[in-house]
Amino acid sequence: MKLFQVIEELVEEKGLERSVLSSIICEGMLAAYSKRYPELHFQVDYDKKTDEISINVQKKVVASVTDDDTEISHRKAKNINPSLNVDDTIWVPFEGKIGRIEILRAKQVIANQIRHIEAEAIFNEFKDKKDTIVHGVVHKCERNGANIKIDDALAFLPKSLTIPGEKCNVGFSIRVLLKDVLTEPRNDNQLILDRVSTLFIEKLFELEIPEVFEKLVEIKRVVRIPGYKSKVAVISNDSNIDPVGTCVGVGGVRIKPILKELGTEKIDIISWNESLEHFIKDALKPAIINRVELVDNKNANIFLEEDQRSLAIGKMGQNISLASQLTGVNIHLVQSSSQRLDLNEERQQDYSGLDDLN
Q1: Among candidates 37, 17, 159, which has minimal Cα distance to 96?
Q2: Chain segment 316-350, per-residue pLDDT in tens
Q3: Which of 26, 45, 87, 211 has its CA 20 to 30 A from that of 324?
Q4: Same-domain check for residues 41 and 82
Q5: CATH no. for residue 78?
Q6: In 3-state terms, what secondary structure has residue 210?
Q7: Of 153, 148, 185, which Cα lies nearest the Cα of 166?
Q8: Tens-digit pLDDT profile for residues 123-136
Q9: Which residue segment(s) compose the domain that 301 sits in?
C-alpha cells in the first residue's frame, strides 16, 4: 500500500486533516533516522505528487572530504548549486537505511501524535459539557465499568460510579453525568461518567422540571444513598408555586421519568423550611413524628409511636441517616411513652427482621 493510501485511510478513520497527518508521518520518520544516526541533521518532507517521503541530510561544503556522512566536496556541491562556497551547508538526499528498531520508533511517534491530536479534539468538544447530563449508548460492559458511546466518542462509566444493582446492557440508551473531561487519556479513558452523585439527581431535576431549570423552584440540598433513596429539599421563589407539587407533577408525571432513570431508587421530595423542627419532621418521612425537641443546633430528640420507629429508621438505618444528613442534625429517636433511643445504638441493631423498611 502506498503512503498516500495510508494517509487517506487515517483521514477517513480519524477525521484528521491530510496536512496534519503528513506532518505527523514526517515527524515519525525524522525520529527514526535521528535515532539511528544521532550525529547527523535530517530534514524529512512528504511529496504528495510523487507519494514519497524524502530524507535529506545536512552536509558542510569542504575542499577535501574527510567524513562522507557530514561533508560534501566543493566540486559536487557546485553541481547541485553553483553559488555554494566552502564552509556553506547544503541539504542532500540521504542514502542510509534504518532497521526494525528505528521503524518501531517511527510508528510509536506517529501513534502518540495521533492520540494527542485526538485527545485535544475530544477535550475541546466536551470541556463545556462537564457537570451536565449527556445521552449515550452502552457500547461495552466490563468488570470494572462500562464504555458508553457519546456522539462519536467513547466515555467510561466506572463500576464505582454506577448505581448499585444496575445492569449493564449493550445497545441500551443511558443518561449520565459527565463528571470529568481530561486533557489526556488516563488508562485509555478521557471522559469519565457518573450516576451516583447528588449532582446527577440535581441535573435530572433540571432536565425534567422546567421550574427547577428556570430557578422558580430551587433545590436547596440533596442527600443520597445510591440505589436506595435520595432526599431532595426544595423551595419556591414564587409564592404561587408549590415546590413539592411542581416537582412531582400531576399524577407523578414529572417525577416518574427521574425514578425510571434511577431504577429501584426512591426519591423523597421535601419542602425546605426555616423552622428546623418542621424540616426534621418532613425529612423523616414516611414516618409520622409526634414532636421534635431541639437539644441544640446539632442534636434533636424525636418523639414518635412504636409503630413509626421502623419507618423512621429505614432499611439498615438508611432513612434516618439521610434525614440527619439533610438537616445537619444528629437525630435521636424517643418513643413517646419510653426512653430515648440513640441513633448510633439504632444503627448497631439488626434490622433484618423488619418488613419492607423504606
Answers
A1: 37
A2: 999 999 999 999 999 999 987 644 444 444 443 44
A3: 211
A4: yes
A5: 3.30.1480.10
A6: helix
A7: 148
A8: 999 999 999 999 99
A9: 276-358
